[in-house]
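Researcher: First entry.
Model:
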Amino acid sequence: MNTPLPDVPEVRVVGLPQLTQGFDLIERLDLAMHLKVHGPLEPVGGERLARLADDISLRGRGGAGFPFGRKLRAVAEAAIRRGVRPVVVVNGSEGEPACRKDTVLLNRAPHLILDGALLAAEALGARTLVVAVTRNSTEISLRAALAERGLSDRRGQQLRARVVRTPERMVSGEASAVIRAIGGGPALPPGRRERASESGVGGAPTLLSNAETFAQLAVAARIGAHRYAHAGLEQEPGTVLLTLSGAVARPMVVEVPTGVPLRYVLQLAGAPPVPQGVLTGGYHGNWIDSAAVHEAVVSRASLAAVGGSLGAGAILPIGPETCPLGEAQRVANWLAAETAGQCGPCRLGLPAAAGGLSDVLNGGGPAALEALREVVQAVKGRGACKHPDGSARFFASTLSAFTDDLAAHVLDGGCGRPTTGVLPLPAPGYQDVEESVPSGERLAVDWTLCQGHGLCADIVPELIRMGADGFPVLADASVPTHLRGRAQRAVGRCPALALRLEQAAAPKERPALPASNRKALGSGRS
């Protein structure tokens, strides 16, 4: 199935709108309409702005959840200590296929985001503002919003503002990748961890937070902390934006106060009454079961208490008619292809984990399951960026959430249900051309010819490993562009002429395989 989410899906609100105020009046709030709906905004001093962020418990809404007030103070202290002007960056790079909340804000309420960013820039004395976006629609909207305010990147302006386009990729939205792209480099994590508050854009202290965070700051600065706290929980006041997709009748972005029951939000989108599982926090998040859904409310603490996560606000239920491990396999292949290709856990671990999950699905038995657990454990905490850890979390959560299905595949050869492709993934060809993106080709083996020499695994270990039976096991994922040359070399070096590159097929419904079919395991036997 796999229908990618539109840039701007349906938008709903529970209770009184804050971020989505005016959406019932007009499709996009230009500057004039924005001021009519939200009113003017006065500058706020640095420490006062940080206290406001503390008073409303404002945390980053991009997934990490770092306290905004602490980040603001850290940038200010670094700028004063070093005697340099800081930079403010709005991270609107939303490369995860299950997230659209920031894209909705950037398209429909760009001036609310700019309000928060300009408040922070004024408080810090910044003279540079950068907005990073991933899509054509968001780039057009932001450029128009800057023009409406008379902001540009021309020399001589008191504040220079510009829009930077990043590829629509999972790793491109990480803070370090955004900073690298702003500096003219590839939109990939640099392989070393540095605090943006100390050294970010151009080496200057940089305040980087995601689009919704700045919009929340603008709302709070207008109405004050007391009124802001009228909505939501005492510990996590205000509203949050959620993207609901997966097995829902109506994919949507919804603004809800914290404390609203999660089951009510799912009902609003037309999710199954008793979902088989709900993926919370997106593809770097955690699965929860139907019992946890009935316990949880929309909040960071409540979701964590039942084993879930708020993350970037993506909520994806699946129904009882699909194979959950098959759904996870599709996402695993995508996560493996999204690798930055710069460290072992990404280059080797994620393709191996995707291949290991394929082994389990295709009848590999307890040995395949144990091998998969070992690979996932080896990936944790060793990556140069957050992508391996987030992906390992998804794998580990999948294995712990669907134990009955796992037992059916490991012991009985399958659960008997097809994979319907209910979790959204990008359409083919969605990415900009650069290293590490999928090439659209995959490796395949003619098992009637393969003799298990193992030369292919030596040449491209990121995609091929040797199984316990002495035959190669291929990652069930598209060959990344930066590995295509070595994949071709592996094909050419195969003594038995058993290896080939072929066009990756579009996803199809896949029924569970019987236990006797071990072709995908690389056993070398039909």
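Researcher: Second entry.
Model:
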Amino acid sequence: MAQHATGPRVGRRRSAVAAVTAATALSLLTASGSAQGRTEHQAEDATVSGGVVASAHGGFTGSGYVDYADAAGGYVEYEVTAARSGTHTLVFRYANATGADLPVDLTVDGRRAGAVGFPATGAWTTWRDVTAAVALEAGVNRVRATAATDRGGPDTDRLLVDDTDVEPPTPPRRLRATGTSDTTVSLAWEPATDDVGVVGYDVYQHGQLMTSVPGTESAATVTGLRPDTAYDWTVLARDAASNVSRAGNNVVVRTDASPADDEAPTAPANPRVVDWSATSVSLAWDASTDDMGVTGYEVHRAGAPVVTTDGTSTAITGLTAGTGYRFAVRARDAAGNVSAFSDEVHAVPEDKATAGAPRPGEVTTLREGTDVPWGLAFLPDGSALVSERERFTLYRLAPDGTWTALGRVPGAQATNGEGGVLGVAVSPLFAYDNTVFIYHTAAAGNQVVRVRLVGDMLTGWHTILGGIPKNRYHNGGGLQFSPDGGYLFVSTGDAQNGSYGQNLDTNAGKILRIHPDGSIPEDNPFPGKAIWSYGHRNVQGMAFDSQGRLWATEFGNNSLDEVNLIQRGGNYGWPGCEGTAGYCEGSIPPKTMWPTSAGGPSGLAIVDDHLFIGTTVGQRLYRLRIDGSDLVEQEVFFQGRYGRLRTLRLDREGDLWLTTTWDLDEEVGNDRVLHVDLVYPGS
């Protein structure tokens, strides 16, 4: 019964079925195609029922493939010998030219193990891989793949069984504080469990890795903290295969107040001008020292403070071109002691920027009282779609401030951190298809969904990309269409598992490129994968310049934040490389960087080849000009004026819309959407 020898089966299969539901215990990731460390099982050598061994279509491995009958219930059963008990990865190689998904049910020794879908591959000679994670017992297991619908299953070439441990540890439980001082917090937790063994624990403070301890320990002390400051702690477990657990419970702990301290820090040394523009100068200096620790610096002009900062550099804006200014810096500690002033530094702002460079003008509040407005995208009528991260709701915001609730995103979940309803994109063909795209966190991970907006009603929800690993922090969330509208770019985080950045078998820690229907473009750099670039920690903002090049902002850990010019197939270094520090061989360096205390880059918009970047930690708006492949002439706006700057989008009138959040995104209903006029001095 060589069913495919006389022609394709297109048209004989009637309807598509969802590949995997949220109830299945499978991870649908595109496989690497590498058989290293895997055992191979040819389908033609397995037990076949309701199908035949065929060889009509080329490109298969072994001596043939199994052609399922056009009926439910046909199966291929493999005899798999496992060296250990635990979760294993099954990699199925298949072809499917029906144009519809052909799902199968999986059982192991008669026990249901979930379901896996086999999406269309375009031709019977085009072979693809899908993977499923299932539990096997040590010894012989009978793995059966049974056609779930009356359209049968796909052409099945082989099964690869990967014995590598893919099961993450359980989350550490009962995290608690066991002690504090003015600069330390001691924590303890109940040990995690793992099918192979826990090798380490990572201690995070609001998404930043602070310290790690071996898996034999269940306590840690973090040093170098600020006195009388609240810190938000989470602990994650790791196993030897670099699987990372979900976050356990979090605990907020305040350090003690400083003991009596009457010793001032040393004076900052070597103050210097490192950059300037017509209306700003950027200064840097060498760090002060203090017996209890320096907590910040004050920059003074004419005897009055103008800027305070945590780091050893800052920008002073609002100056007059050609006017001389003298600045001095002093340090302070937690007890309020201040150092002597540094030597004075003389600066004269000068106009070295391109004439007519856009800059912020009048700022108008369009909406206040929102709750972490994250996604922002414009409709053809000039109104914007705005998502609230943890209320899971999508709104329409008109330029006159009219605010209309459109509905909640089904299945959206929070993570008590950076998860929820995140990026929003409007189809370039919205006038014809009324389609909106949303990135959100769900039970099975982060995902991209597609929905139609008809009037004020959302209808026809459909997941086009799922299975993106999630965690409390580092969920990414950006969506950006290519200039031609043919591709949707998706930015993801590493789900607090640094090894994901370099792992091409997961969509975490990546920038992805898909078609608007969720299919994978054939010219992506890694065949069969959505991955466009990798080695990322947590990318949120993306935008294209006038040459059609993609730029992206990236959160660093404890050292440097980045802006990157994205290349097809490029490796951006994480976790070995942060900024330009660490092991960076073979990775693409950033185009600009900031200390994490002055960054937290989230929103990105490009106007006349000028990058505008909103920062959360730095609470400022950066502007940089694209000069070839470099970024030059940095200017700073709004420093500390509007709190944490989250999302930036360019509206149809050529102005910026900007969302803000306050107090580490925790004070509900205290956030805003702003309209920022862009003006062009000298034009």
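Model: Note on the second entry: The first helix runs from residue 430 to 433.
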